[in-house]
Amino acid sequence: MTIINDQWELVEDRLRGRGKVSYYEIGANRLTETGNSPYAGELYDWPIQIAQKVNFDYEQFVEAFRTALDHFAGKYKPSVDSAMLEASIETGREFDKAKHG
Known about the structure:
By secondary structure, this protein is α+β, with helices and mostly antiparallel strands. It contains three helices and four strands, in the order E-E-E-E-H-H-H. It has helices spanning 45-51, 58-71, 82-99; strands at 2-3, 8-11, 14-18, 23-27. The model has no long low-confidence stretch (mean pLDDT 94).
C-alpha cells in the first residue's frame, strides 16, 4: 500500500479512496474509462464522478488520480490522452464548485 494523501492510496491493482463514510475503489484497468454520458468518449469518467461525491476532496482526488495513472501505466487501455485528462479534470472542478454552491 502507498498512501498518496489523507484520502487516497494505491493498493495492489487499484486506487482506493478513504472517504468519510466508506472506501471507494477504482481498478487500475478502469482508470481511463470514458463510457459515462453525457461525456462518453470525450472525457475520462472518474474525475467527473468523484467531483460529484460529497465525501471526497476533489483536489486530493486529482493528485491521487495523476499518481495512479503514472503508477499503473501499461495496466489500463487506452493510454492517457493529456488533453482529455486536463479537460476531464477541469470539468470535474466545475462540478465540484457547483456541489459546494
